[in-house]
Write a structure and sequence with these properties.
- Two copies of one chain form a homodimer.
- Chain A is α+β, with helices and mostly antiparallel strands and 138 residues long.
- In chain A, 41% of the residues lie in helices and 27% in strands.
- Chain A has one domain: Alpha-Beta Plaits (2-Layer Sandwich).
- The longest helix of chain A has 23 residues.
- Chain A is globular and about 40 Å long.
- At the A-B interface, helix 1, strand 1, helix 2, helix 3 and strand 2 of A face helix 1, strand 1, helix 2, helix 3 and strand 2 of B.
Amino acid sequence: MMLQGKIIRSVLAAAGIMLVAAAGLPRPKVQRIGMVIGLKADKIEEYKSLHAGTNPGVRDLLRKYHIRNFSIYLRQFDDGGYYLFGYYEYMGSDYKTDLENLAEEERNLKWLTVTDPMQVPFSGEKGWALMPEIYHND
Amino acid sequence: MMLQGKIIRSVLAAAGIMLVAAAGLPRPKVQRIGMVIGLKADKIEEYKSLHAGTNPGVRDLLRKYHIRNFSIYLRQFDDGGYYLFGYYEYMGSDYKTDLENLAEEERNLKWLTVTDPMQVPFSGEKGWALMPEIYHND
């Protein structure tokens, strides 16, 4: 039983190292996206309801295509206009294909027919405008 | 040796379950912060240099006070103005105290004397304006 105990302790120690390594690993490589768009003042409450935690919306589809940790913020600017800022992390391995497949999902298309008319794209944009990242600190 | 093999396999299986559990755990509870501020057009390049990955800046202090996954995005709006959007995750357990302690750090105070004059706070704000989160999907 001495030897067994020693072996078990060794295996447990190795497992412990693995656990520490797993916990201490940097997060998987992600692509961070920041984007902005206007929001019509008379659509604020409806937009907020659609995006409330109680509405499933297209949350499952975003996850299906590896779009995670997605937040949207809303703020009135000094010009009186309302702007939405979106932030998400892409955790998959083929961003282009995933976005194309998401764009073809029936429920996503339907969702956009509801939300698109509430938004005010920037000049020259059809939807959310990408914002270049100028700083990142893990 | 049969019994030892069986025990080792059991321990390894348990370690495997622990590893899966560790990998599959939701991220620790975080507080997500979204904020916005203007940036003076003639300070863009200097601001970008200060925030480049090559400049240590106050990156270590942010981490010290549990401010993680911090990104800043920059975009010109249709009114011609430039705006910075900041996003970070607070991973500590006492946000108020951590922010107060960060605010008292000598190097942070010095950093702000450089960056503050480049920024244009919103009306009624002294620095970054918080943006309420209206959507989140993990």
